[in-house]
Amino acid sequence: MKTVGVFDSGVGGLSVLRALLAEMPQAHYVYLADGAHAPYGERSPLQVAERAHRITDGLRHHFGIDALVVACNTATALAIEGLRAEHPEWPIVGVEPALKPAAALTRTGHVGVMATRGTVESDRYARLRERLEGGSGSPLHFSSQACDGLADAIERDDKAAIQTLCKRYWEALKASEKNLPEIDTLVLGCTHYPFAADELRALIGPEVALVETGAPVARRTQAVLKDLPARKHGSGVHPGVTLLSTGDPQPLARAAHRWLGLDVSGQQFTC
Ligand code: DGL
Q: Does residue 235 register a pLDDT over 80?
């Protein structure tokens, strides 16, 4: 029995928690939404890295977590190398836009990627993209769209804003088809976006594949946990979920109920 820390800027990482619960229902999860500092996508790389370090220290020291899942593409892109350097002996799993699975799926060779500005403009993302575009024998192109405001609209559960922004960004991606084949695969490169999947599906139609990262991240976490030694003092851990927010915990608890069917009240946590 293990305790797994999971964090995101807000409710988006619940899409990863959902996959973790499906894969490993027997673990205890401490989920932290950094509500007081969300969204991350339009913050500076330094601010996001600072928050990621503080949260990691807070979860590690207050909850004795065995492993950490950075359930946020933006924080992974901007902070995971620093987190691993600071906690070298301790497992940290990150989330990256699923470009590789999309490359295997696409038939036209044109993949759309929706992500935050922080992710799209990061060096880590540029390297990931270059490796795949340059390394493949067949022509492969990723059109990347920074979706300012979309994570925030999902955070507020503002359906009208979600629809407007999805339409705006999907149209921008379609415009990139001028000199390229049609986009047949769309990567959801932000953990918030699976919660806009219905709005997106209505726009893109049934033929375009939507790719998200929850399930592979859950499998990777399970593999990492298997390699950890058993806890010294018995488990003392019960399966379940603790929900924390650095801001108002109510929206997090409501989202966890709405999307994951969890009946857990949220608690405030300062770090
Ligand atoms: N859910 C996050 C991600 O995967 C961050 C969204 C945001 O806070 O802007 O990138």
A: no
Domain 3-95+214-268 top-level CATH class: alpha beta
In this predicted structure, what is the pLDDT of residue 150?
Answer: 98
CATH topology agreement for domains 3-95+214-268 and 99-211: yes
Short-list 53, 6, 8, CA closest to 191: 8
Catalogue the active-site residues. 72, 190
Question: How far, in Å, from the CA of 192 to the mean position of ligand 1?
Answer: 6
Ligand 1: nearest atom to the Cα of 95: 4
As assigned by CATH, the class of the 99-211 domain is alpha beta
CA distance 125 to 226: 29
pTM above 0.85, yes or no: yes
Burial of 99 (0-12, 13-18, 19+ CB in 10 A): buried
